[in-house]
Write a structure and sequence with these properties.
alpha/beta, 15 strands, 4-stranded parallel β-sheet, 9-stranded mixed β-sheet, binds magnesium ion, binds threonylcarbamoyladenylate
């Protein structure tokens, strides 16, 4: 399949790109779209055959459910069937964080195809704040199922070029609107018994969520995997990755080409160094994380060394991904 990339930078380009994206969605095709977190691979969420194409392009196992992106708040009641007891909390959360990088896992409505929820009784929903995504989903006027636009288990794409590297030849269209702002996937929260269960850390932090109810951290839960984003093997570069506190105290194995994903150290002795944020800004670090990991992964290194970042606020979301990336290779 020939994969076309359409740029959506000027108003004129945007108008064309949005029309093309909607046309693809309407004919039951998949299309890669920018969101404020990472690039997503979208399809008509109410069309099971279209959603199956997402699983095929990503080689995603069918047990891993998709996030449904809504055209607006009013779609919550069409796609989910929330209990009256949790309505106030949901409203408070969506008023504060939508449109934006918060995904809520709620009881599903019957209209949602099984393939989207992997047969679960819940569905994950969010409203994207990205202007191009928002324009596409509002012109389409129906929910769009969209996981990250990478092959299963791989690093999420934060640019259109990354999407092409992952899915070129497998999908008809990529809309390029420049690098994603946040650079890491949305925070996923399930609501149960009035509590907020964090299934995946992301741009909306635990600190921000705490005022909406008591928090249960499910991100380290092993055993039953509720969100396969929880699988240790997620976000994995092909190159082995080692997580260290400081690269200054770390000795490179002789004869190995090592790269550094740096937080504090200058890393002079490394073959290739990428600094997450020279000013120590966690937002900048998050937006650089996947692109830099991908660059290091493509540099023919024997080992990527990643320095720990502070484990609070957005840093916890970064650390979560670095731990999974390192765990994946240690398990090999
Ligand atoms: O920022 C994002 O969330 C991006 C953009 C494209 O929106 N999407 C994204 O989707 O990261 P994906 O598929 O890569 O990750 C979605 C995660 C998966 O780990 C999936 O298991 C979980 O959401 N998920 C989806 N539905 C769920 C459900 N009903 N219960 C629990 N987890 C669910
Ligand atoms: Mg993903």
């Amino acid at each position: 399949m020939n994969t076309e990339t359409l740029r959506a930078f000027t108003d004129a380009q945007r108008a064309i790109a949005i029309r093309r994206a909607v046309a693809e969605l309407e004919r039951g095709e998949v299309v890669a779209l920018p969101t404020e977190t990472v690039y997503g691979l979208g399809a008509d969420a109410l069309n099971a055959d279209a959603c199956l194409k997402i699983f095929a392009a990503k080689e995603r196992p069918r047990f891993d459910p998709l996030i449904v992106h809504l055209p607006g708040h009013e779609f919550v009641d069409r796609i989910t069937s929330i209990q009256s007891s949790s309505r106030d909390t949901i409203q408070a959360l969506t008023r504060r964080f939508w449109p934006g990088p918060l995904t809520l896992v709620l009881p599903r409505a019957a209209i949602v195809p099984d393939v989207v929820t992997s047969g679960l009784e819940t569905v994950a929903v969010r409203v994207s704040a990205h202007p191009v995504f928002a324009a596409v989903v509002s012109a389409f006027a129906k929910p769009i199922a969209a996981p990250s636009a990478n092959r299963f288990g791989r690093i999420s794409p934060t640019t259109a070029a990354h999407v092409h590297e992952e899915l070129g030849g497998r999908i008809p269209l990529i809309i390029d609107a420049g690098p994603a702002t946040h650079g890491i996937e949305s925070t996923i929260v399930a609501l149960r018994e009035g509590k907020l269960f964090i299934l995946r850390r992301g741009p909306v932090t635990e600190e921000q969520l705490a005022e909406f109810g008591s928090i249960v951290d499910q991100t380290k839960a092993s055993g039953t995997v509720e969100a396969p984003g929880q699988l240790a093997s997620h976000y994995a570069p092909r190159t082995p990755l080692k997580l260290v506190d400081s690269a200054d105290d770390w000795e490179a194995p002789a004869g190995k080409r090592c790269g550094l994903l740096a937080w504090r150290s200058a890393g002079e002795e490394f073959a290739l160094v990428r600094h997450l944020s020279r000013s120590g800004d966690l937002r900048e670090a998050a937006s650089n994380l996947f692109g830099m990991l991908r660059e290091l992964d493509n540099a023919d290194l024997d080992l990527i060394v990643a320095e720990a970042v502070p484990d609070h606020d957005l840093g916890s979301a970064i650390m979560d991904r670095l731990r999974r990336a390192s765990a994946a290779r240690e398990a090999d």
